[in-house]
């Protein structure tokens, strides 16, 4: 359809109360990219993993996703997907909307009233931290010990902040996208569990047999003062520790992709570029390759998951060390979410800057990469910076010291 419908208004009208639903969001006020809204049925089969990622994409003017699966994969590798056949696709650049599966969706969306005002969060006080800042500093020291011993070059240490009580998951997402809009955001609800994400990081984009990954390593806070803000971005761009950390993960992702890509096809498309978001500047790179014919989505994930930006390097050793230090599963945080198409195309984002909502509580994961040059106070502060906006969407605050 030529003409525009606000995705937020359409979702609120059509799917806000649906038990199994999704909104993959290009961001508040996006002027490029695609958003998708719809509902589906839970699908525990392995079908998404069996899609051939090297078949020609069915993408056309109606977008890259033409039906398949929407869902997530936890850091520990557990998957949950919705089988999706009827949905709306929003082309933000062309300002056009397309209906798949059920043309009546478009008719109903045209009747959507403006989305209601975003409600202020009920104040919930201070979140409960899994560890204290002092304990996190001790874990940073343990990471540096492991690096000194040669067991790793870099380790992505993480923790969790929990807010007790039931919340309206959709309203949490609406608040989050108002303050932390991102090109790879999303809201997925599967029964009593939901994900509200303002992720800035694309994990895997697959189309026509090519795969791209966009690792993020390196963070600085934003400032309301333009001069200070520009200085923070430049400090990030030139910081030797942050640059080294990012390059380590680029090398790791090159190695991961080389397991399933044609020889000599893996390359670095972007290196050490600063991208700015509402609350943070991030240091981003891009690696891509051409998949070996017949490679499935499952084989690609087996070679690349979890993302190196959330583990460290070397990956296997880093994961062993982190499991010993963190002493708790990460769950959905550090995993990935997005869509997998019937045609083998896919677009998955990292579960970071996100809220996981369960029946009696919601929680936020946050962390950062530790290298030999890491300073504990700076790393503790970075965790607080990353957790602040997702916790605010819940009406909660970061505990003192973070």
Write the layout of secondary structure elements.
Blueprint: H1 7-14, E1 20-25, E2 34-39, E3 41-43, E4 68-73, E5 79-84, E6 87-91, E7 96-100, H2 104-110, E8 125-126, E9 128-129, H3 133-148, E10 154-164, H4 169-179, E11 185-190, E12 193-197, E13 202-207, E14 210-213, E15 216-221, H5 226-238, H6 240-258, E16 267-276, E17 280-290, H7 297-304, E18 312-313, H8 315-326, E19 336-341, E20 346-350, E21 354-358, E22 361-370, H9 376-393, E23 396-397
Parallel strand pairs: 8-23
Antiparallel strand pairs: 1-2, 1-11, 2-6, 3-5, 4-5, 4-19, 6-7, 9-10, 10-18, 10-22, 11-12, 12-21, 13-14, 13-20, 14-17, 15-17, 16-17, 19-20, 21-22
Helix pairs in contact: 1-2, 3-8, 3-9, 4-9
Fold and architecture overview:
The chain is of the alpha+beta class. The protein has helices at 7-14, 104-110, 133-148, 169-179, 226-238, 240-258, 297-304, 315-326, 376-393; strands at 20-25, 34-39, 41-43, 68-73, 79-84, 87-91, 96-100, 125-126, 128-129, 154-164, 185-190, 193-197, 202-207, 210-213, 216-221, 267-276, 280-290, 312-313, 336-341, 346-350, 354-358, 361-370, 396-397. The chain is built from nine helices and 23 strands. Helix 3 (133-148) packs antiparallel against helix 8 and helix 3 (133-148) crosses helix 9. The protein is globular and about 60 Å long. The termini are far apart. 50% of the residues are buried. The mean pLDDT is 96.
Determine Rg (CA atoms, Å).
20 Å
According to DSSP, the number of beta strands is: 23
Question: What is the overall silhouette?
Answer: globular
Indicate the percent of residues in helices: 25-40%
Largest sheet: 11 strands, antiparallel
Average of per-residue pLDDT values: 96
- Quote the beta fraction: 25-35%
Low-confidence stretches: none
Query: Structural class of the secondary elements?
Result: alpha+beta
What is the distance, rounded to the nearest whole angstrom, between the alpha carbons of the first and last residues? Answer: 48 Å
- How many helix segments? 9
């Amino acid at each position: 359809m030529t003409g525009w419908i606000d995705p937020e208004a359409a979702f609120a009208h059509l799917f806000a109360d649906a038990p199994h639903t999704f909104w993959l969001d290009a961001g508040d006020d996006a002027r490029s990219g695609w958003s998708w809204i719809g509902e589906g049925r839970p699908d525990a089969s392995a079908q998404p993993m069996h899609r051939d990622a090297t078949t020609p994409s069915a993408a056309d003017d109606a977008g890259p996703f033409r039906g398949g699966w929407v869902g997530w994969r936890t850091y520990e590798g557990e998957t949950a997907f919705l089988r999706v056949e009827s949905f709306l696709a929003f082309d933000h650049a062309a300002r056009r909307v397309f209906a798949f599966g059920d043309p009546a969706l478009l008719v109903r969306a045209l009747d959507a009233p403006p989305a209601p005002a975003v409600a202020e969060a009920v104040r919930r006080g201070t979140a409960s931290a899994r560890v204290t800042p002092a304990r996190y500093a001790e874990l940073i020291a343990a990471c540096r010990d492991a690096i000194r011993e040669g067991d790793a070059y870099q380790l992505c240490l993480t923790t969790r902040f929990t807010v007790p009580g039931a919340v309206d998951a959709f309203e949490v997402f609406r608040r989050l996208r108002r303050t932390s809009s991102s090109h790879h955001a999303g809201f997925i609800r599967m029964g009593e569990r939901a994900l509200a994400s303002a992720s800035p990081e694309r994990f895997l984009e697959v189309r026509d047999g090519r795969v791209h990954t966009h690792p993020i390593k390196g963070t600085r806070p934003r400032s309301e003062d333009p001069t200070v803000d520009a200085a923070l971005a430049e400090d990030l761009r030139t910081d030797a520790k942050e640059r080294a950390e990012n390059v380590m993960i680029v090398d790791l992702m090159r190695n991961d992709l080389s397991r399933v890509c044609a020889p000599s096809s893996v390359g670095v498309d972007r290196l050490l570029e600063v991208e700015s978001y509402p609350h943070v500047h991030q240091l981003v790179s891009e690696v891509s390759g051409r998949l070996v014919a017949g490679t499935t989505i499952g084989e690609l994930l087996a070679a690349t998951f979890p993302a190196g930006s959330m583990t460290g390097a070397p990956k296997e050793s880093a994961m062993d060390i982190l499991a010993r230090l963190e002493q708790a599963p990460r769950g959905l945080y550090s995993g990935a979410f997005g869509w997998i198409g019937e045609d083998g195309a896919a677009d998955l984002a990292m579960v970071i800057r996100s809220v996981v909502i369960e029946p009696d509580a919601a929680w936020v994961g946050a962390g950062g990469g530790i290298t030999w040059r890491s300073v504990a106070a700076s790393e503790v502060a970075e965790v607080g910076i990353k957790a602040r906006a997702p916790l605010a969407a819940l009406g909660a605050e970061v505990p003192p010291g973070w």
